[in-house]
Amino acid sequence: MKIEEIRERSIAELQDEVTNLKKKLCTLRIDRGLQKEVDATEFGKTKKLIARIKTVIREKELAK
């Protein structure tokens, strides 16, 4: 997801997306713990996407 796509969404949609990504991150951690096949780069990508979305949420809150 690009930053332009993130900025087009509303705060509520972004918060829902953060929740979904945190669930995905939790699932990845569980799968890794169970020694399932997990793409290690997904951890970093997911964390960075969460950070980008939270940054945009904060920008929108300050703009009000």
Tag the structure with descriptive keywords.
0% strand; 3 helices; Helix Hairpins; elongated; 81% helix; 64 residues; mainly alpha
How do the helices and strands line up, and which of them pair or pack?
Layout lengths: L2 H6 L2 H23 L7 H23 L1
Helix pairs in contact: 2-3
Structure report:
The protein is an all-alpha fold. The protein has a single domain, classed as Helix Hairpins (Orthogonal Bundle), CATH 1.10.287. 81% of the residues lie in helices and 0% in strands. The longest helix is centred in the middle third of the chain and has 23 residues. The model has no long low-confidence stretch (mean pLDDT 95).
Overall form: elongated
| N-to-C SSE string, H for helix and E for strand | HHH
Beta content comes to: under 5%
Question: How many helices?
Answer: 3
- Mean pLDDT score: 95
Q: Please estimate the helix content.
A: over 70%
Number of strands: 0
**Biggest sheet character:** none
Task: Specify the CATH architecture.
Answer: Orthogonal Bundle
CATH class: Mainly Alpha
State the low-pLDDT regions, or none: none
Q: Indicate the CATH topology.
A: Helix Hairpins
- Terminal CA distance reads 24 Å
Task: Offer a concise description of the structure.
By secondary structure, the chain is mainly alpha-helical. The chain has three helices and no strands.
